[in-house]
Amino acid sequence: MMDITAELQNIYDSEINVEILISWLWDGGIEVRLGDRINGFLAEANVPLVVNLLPWLQEAIAHFYPDSTYALGLPMEVRDRARRQIFVAPRSVPK
After folding, report:
1. Residues 57, 42: Cα–Cα separation, whole Å
2. Which of 33, 1, 5, 40 is nearest to 19 (CA)?
3. What three-state secondary structure class fits 25?
4. What is the pTM of this model?
5. pLDDT tens over the chain, length 95 residues
6. Which listed residue, of 5, 28, 35, 88, carries a Cα 20 to 30 Å from 61's Cα?
7. How far is 31 from 49, CA to CA, in rounded Å?
C-alpha cells in the first residue's frame, strides 16, 4: 500500500493543485478534483474507496501534466494507463 501522506506531499511539492473533499454518506464515495477553484478544474471523480484516491490522482496528473516532475517520477505503467484514460470533465463547483 502506498503512503498517502508522502505522495500528497510530493504532489504538493510539485506545485500541482488538487482538491480532495473528504466527505461521505455511508457509501457515497470521496470527491476528488484536479485543479483549483481559482484557475479551474481539469477533471473530477468520485472514488468509492480511500485506496482508490491516490491511483486516480496519479493517473490524472500523468494525463494532464505528463512533463511534471511528479508525473515523470511515476512508474511507466501508470503513465501508460494515464495516456489512455478518459477523465470526466468537472461540473460546476459550488463556491
Report:
1. 12
2. 33
3. coil
4. 0.88
5. 678 899 999 999 999 999 887 777 777 888 889 998 898 899 999 999 888 999 999 999 999 999 999 999 999 999 999 999 999 888 866 55
6. 28
7. 10
